[in-house]
Design brief:
Structural class: alpha+beta
Strand order of the largest sheet: 7-6-5-8-9
Largest sheet: 5 strands, antiparallel
CATH class of the domain at 82-161: Alpha Beta
Distance between the termini: 46 Å
Strand content: 15-25%
Shape: globular
Order of helices and strands: HHHHHEEEHHEEEEHEEH
Number of strands: 9
Length: 300
């Protein structure tokens, strides 16, 4: 069954109460039956965590506007993408007040992004219709019941466009367990030919697959990668698990978001032993097994 077919099937089952829905959704996307009461793998741990009441800091950092103050306090405001506007009504978007290329994001969910690389070509009515739809949507109910988003204020932020106007910048996603990285995912060309390369923290490809293909060539490691790791560690320090998303444009690091339920729990990592290995890192703080890392053969 294709990923899209799984999505369609799971959406038909959203009438179920929370726990039965979580169990069925996990079975559909992860291909295994689990009550989620004694989770062992990463995907099981993620689903079980999502069923629990979330600490206030999880919900605050899931809010793409409220998190800005938290980031400024923890690592410094210099890592924030410059904010242009924040609105809770689509009609309040001020296109004439935008200083140049911008990005509009919904703050209370996922997949709510509009790129505005050329303001002169923007269909303002179409943009307002899209933002109005976001603000009319309770993402917790309409999405996959991701509890970090439950009850968040519905707002949209307008941020300055960073990087090349022709495409979104590469997105560096740090999977942090107990404040330390276990995996780094580099997403490239997200709005065109999306690739997603899975790497070890020391920048070697993992012998693992996810939803999207790897890039044809190994993404270049940023020169200030050590600083990116430092930022990710500081932002992840309060959580057993969190994904810290950063950008790196012309040598400058920008904060993207903190994600507590990556992919809505829908992405199936292969081989399944890797899912278990990440679960062991989460549960027991074990190191990433070397068998999953593609290291170059030693020279003779």
């Amino acid at each position: 069954m294709s990923f899209d077919a799984r999505v369609m099937l799971a959406r038909r089952l959203r009438f179920l109460p929370d726990r039965p829905f979580a169990v069925v959704k996990h079975a559909i996307f992860q291909g295994e039956l689990s009550t989620l009461r004694r989770p062992r793998t990463y995907s099981q741990m993620l689903a079980a965590k999502n069923l629990k009441a979330q600490p206030p800091l999880v919900q605050l950092t899931a809010d793409k506007y409220a998190v800005r103050e938290h980031v400024a306090e923890r690592v410094g405001a210099q890592y924030l993408i410059p904010l242009v506007q924040v609105v809770d009504r689509a009609d309040d978007l001020d296109f004439d007040g935008m200083p140049g290329p911008c990005v509009i994001k919904g703050t209370h969910g996922c997949d709510m992004t509009i790129l505005l690389p050329d303001l002169a070509k923007v269909d303002r009515d179409a943009v307002r219709r899209t933002v109005r739809r976001w603000l009319d949507t309770d993402f917790y109910k309409a999405g996959w019941r991701e509890s970090p988003y439950r009850g968040l204020p519905r707002r949209a932020v307008v941020e300055e466009f960073i990087g090349d106007r022709r495409t979104a910048p590469s997105d560096y996603k740090f999977f942090m367990f107990h404040g330390e990285p276990a995996m780094v995912v580099v997403d490239q060309d997200r709005f065109s030919a999306h690739t997603s390369t899975l790497l070890s923290p020391d920048w070697h490809e993992l012998d693992v697959s996810g939803r999207f293909a790897f890039a044809d060539a190994l993404p270049e490691q940023p020169r200030n990668y050590a600083e990116m790791l430092d930022v990710a560690r500081k932002l992840a320090a309060d959580f057993e698990f969190a994904r810290i998303d950063l950008y790196n444009v012309d040598g400058r690091i920008y904060f993207g978001e903190i994600t507590h339920n990556p992919g809505g729990g829908l992405v199936r990592l292969q081989p399944r032993e890797f899912d278990l290995a990440l679960g062991e890192i989460w549960r027991r703080r074990t190191p990433l097994p070397e068998r999953f890392v593609k290291r170059p053969a030693p020279s003779a």
